[in-house]
Amino acid sequence: MGVVNWSKKYIFIFLVLDTIPIVLYKYLDWTWLAIPWQPIALIGIAVSFYLGFKNNSSYDRLWEARKIWGGIVNASRTFTIMTRDFITNEFAKEKIPEDELHAIHKTIVHRHVAWLKALTYQLRVIKPWEHDNKEDSDLRKLGDVHHEDNHFEKIMPYLSSSDYEYVTSKGNKASHILSLQSKSLLDLKLKGLIEDFRHMELAKMLGEFYTLQGQSERIKNFPFPRQYATVNYIFVWIFLILLPFGMLNVFSDPSHAASSWLLIPFTLLVSWVFILMEMIGEYSENPFEGLYNDVPISTMSRSIEIDIRQMLDETDLPEPIKPVWDDSILL
């Protein structure tokens, strides 16, 4: 039912488009409206190939985004246990109490949570080519994934006041949070709380986070090529408008007067299948816009936060994000 509800506008449009030709053909005797089926079938074949190409390409973008965020999940866990176990008094010039060590671990891990949140908010900024009608905007607000400038205030509890002031003065906030992590790790190395090899391993993890962020930004900031998306959309609609005219002769059996009305349900079904394939490809192009078919980065970010903070034995944790709309959609 969710799929039907998603495409209900088009079902109504096709019902009107498919009814008009049969009414004109049957009651006004406009027999010239009947078009030979063969040329329309050729258009349908070409459209099918184009749809297949577009959907495969859109799926590649979606699946790459999912792999990127799967990498963020695994790298975040690795970075947390390395932070917890590498930053010790073992090589320290001046040993510090265990509670101060734990505070250092907590600062770094919380700063990483701030990076996750900042990256998520940046990826939720709507681009001109992304979907932003009223229904889509309402869904984003329902799931609290709509972008607002004050969303970055939500990272304040995870940063010191100086760090927060520094980050909010920058454009790419997520990138500069990682820069702060690098400065912090260097300071710990100079104090002897991280020996050289361990510092290099932690620095490699920051490089991995930069890579994963850059891959996410590449998908977000570079749209599916418009020459493919727009032309395919036009071809689909040309085919769907011509379709009922080509079906008039197919369902015009003189011996069965009622058979001509079968044109409406059959044409409606074919039209719905084609437009649904077009919509699936179109909505899979942009996997970070916060809608039905996207990678649920807000949910994943919250899950990572809970997971890595539990590694530090924290208990004041946020609740997992729940699905919206009858527990069916994760955002």
Briefly characterize the structure.
The chain has 331 residues and is mainly alpha-helical. Helix content is 66%, strand content 0%.
Topology of this structure?
Layout: H1 2-6, H2 8-27, H3 37-86, H4 98-123, H5 134-142, H6 161-168, H7 173-190, H8 196-221, H9 226-247, H10 263-284, H11 297-310
Estimated structural class: mainly alpha
Determine the mean pLDDT: 88
Q: Count of helices? A: 11
**Overall helicity:** 55-70%
Rg, rounded, reads: 28 Å
**N-end to C-end Cα span:** 19 Å
Overall number of strands: 0
Give the helices and strands as they follow along the chain: HHHHHHHHHHH
Name the overall outline. Answer: elongated
Give start-end ranges of low-pLDDT stretches: none
Q: Give the strand content.
A: under 5%
Please describe the biggest sheet, giving its number of strands, its sense, and whether it closes into a barrel. none
